[in-house]
Write a structure and sequence with these properties.
By secondary structure, the chain is an alpha+beta fold. Helix 7 packs antiparallel against helix 8, helix 8 runs antiparallel to helix 9 and helix 9 packs parallel to helix 12.
Length: 497
């Protein structure tokens, strides 16, 4: 039969049995881990009062007295420092243990140092995180699952004039007037169902009942059980942009109605639309850059828990998508509004593509490498380098983006005898299904196998328009699972076309 001593020696936590005089009658093997913290050697017959620090002796004496006299089991926390001054935290349980006609006390010591250290770091990180959010150059506020506002930073106060003590514990619907309350309710229902909402134009009313338009990202907050417990709003005030945009839209509508039958008036309307796109793109870049700067500031100034970094990653990811989409739409819109025109300059094609490839590699964080094969060390070109940039930035980026399982792309540059040059971009990526090849140059069209790979579906449409403007040829070959090969053939100068 296994003895009690054998059982106690197999326990992972230190155990001490003491008598009424606080003398150690027995200690298990796990107790040896406490030797560096004890004031005296741990031995049978030594008083446990002599093992603890002087400032804890009265507490231990009182706990032992309660254990022996009132047969009470008590659990307390204790802090000790080792020889190097590092703190250790323990949960100590004092339990009465009757034995024959006598009474002993069982002292169980559980090391909770990792837990306490984590708690203290978490509190410190939370304090730093709250300080960053409080002073961020973006409106940041949060609500709980019942839509009551639980946090409100200084930028929120500056924009809305609501002080924190005026708005906390108020329902978020207070920010919306009667006209916009329904849209606020729809937004909250979507977010509290667990779906994030990005780049949403939220119309609210400030303290003076003036309307404000905010561009916000709203992210659900989850607990450990994956239940939605609230939502975090991060945004910028775009009231001025929204008002100006509305004004321009109204002008477009008015002018369209008046100038339907006149070609000259129609051209004026096209010009107005073009100016609107240009103004909108400029104004949209400002809030996007501000959001991106605020996220980088948060990321660089404090250490956050993994789930909070996930929220920052989502914000950065959506800002990047918005910026790329904006640039692509602008290029496409320019081609729709007016025919693209080439502006010719002289330059060396090899050097130009080297710089372009390096730029793409940097933007892709060097996830791939580009192997170049050249027919000549230099090739003189008279061409539009802006249009060439649109072509090869898209092709090289696609070659890397759609080759997640390969770390390289191929770039062939060949000068032909007929004063043309072939530039081939080839990858070993996922390829494009045959059924999709007929429509790959249509705007906003992506391969059906693109899956979660990000993109706007505008890149190849922009490439095709640029190549046509330069009176070049575009050849496209792709096989699913083997990769894609794109050949761009261009004249070395417009005179040879």
């Amino acid at each position: 039969m296994i003895s009690a001593e054998t059982i106690l020696n197999h326990l992972k936590e230190p155990i001490f049995l003491v008598d009424k005089e606080a003398r150690i009658l027995f200690y298990n093997k796990a107790s040896n881990r406490l030797r560096t913290l004890a004031r005296k050697p741990i031995e049978t017959g030594v008083s446990v009062l002599d093992l603890v620090s002087a400032d804890r002796q009265d507490i231990v004496r009182m706990l032992l007295q309660q254990t022996f006299q009132h047969h009470i089991t008590e659990t307390v926390e204790a802090e000790y420092a080792d020889l190097d001054g590092r703190p250790h935290y323990f949960e100590v349980t004092y339990s009465p243990l009757p034995y024959k006609d006598d009474m002993h006390a069982c002292i169980e010591v559980r090391d909770i140092t990792p837990q306490k250290t984590f708690e203290r770091k978490s509190v410190r990180l939370l304090r730093d995180y709250q300080n960053v959010l409080e002073n961020a150059n973006a409106l940041i506020f949060s609500v709980d699952s019942r839509e009551y506002i639980t946090d409100w930073n200084k930028e929120c106060t500056r924009i809305t004039h609501f002080e924190k003590n005026e708005i906390l514990a108020q329902r978020v619907a207070k920010l919306a007037d009667e006209k916009n309350r329904e849209s606020m309710a729809i937004l909250m229902a979507k977010v509290l169902s667990g779906m994030p909402v990005n780049n949403y134009e939220l119309v609210i009313s400030d303290k003076e009942q003036d309307q404000l338009t905010l561009l916000v990202n709203v992210t659900p907050k989850f607990n450990d059980k994956n239940d939605v417990v609230g939502a975090l709003f991060v945004g910028q005030d775009i009231t001025e942009l929204s008002t100006y945009r509305f004004s321009l839209e109204q002008q477009v509508l008015d002018r369209t109605e008046k100038l339907k039958e006149a070609l000259e008036k129609e051209r004026e309307l096209v010009a107005l639309k073009d100016r609107f796109v240009s103004m909108a793109s400029h104004e949209l870049r400002t809030p996007l850059s501000s959001i991106e700067h605020s996220v980088r500031h948060i990321r660089s100034t404090c250490s956050l828990p993994h789930d909070e970094f996930g929220a920052l990653d989502k914000i950065e990811f959506q800002v990047g998508l918005m910026r790329n989409l904006l640039e692509d739409i602008l290029t496409l819109e320019k081609g729709n509004v007016q025919k693209l025109k080439a502006s010719y300059q002289s330059f060396d094609l090899i050097h130009f593509l080297d710089e372009l490839a390096e730029e793409v590699l940097i933007s892709r964080q060097h996830s791939h490498r580009i192997e170049k094969r050249l027919s000549h060390p230099s090739i003189g070109m008279v061409c539009d380098n802006k249009l060439l940039r649109n072509i090869f930035i898209n092709l090289l980026s696609n070659a890397m983006k759609f080759s997640p399982d390969s770390d390289k792309g191929l770039l062939f540059i060949t000068r032909n005898d007929d004063e043309t040059v072939d530039v081939v971009v080839q990858d070993d990526g996922i390829g494009i299904p045959e059924a999709d090849l007929k429509r790959i140059f249509d705007p906003f069209t992506r391969g059906s196998n693109a899956g979660s790979i990000t993109g706007t579906g505008l890149g190849l449409s922009i490439v095709k328009r640029a190549v046509e403007t330069l009176q070049g040829k575009l050849l496209f070959e792709s096989t699913v699972g083997k990769g894609t090969k794109v050949t761009v053939q261009l004249a070395c100068s417009p005179d040879s076309v």
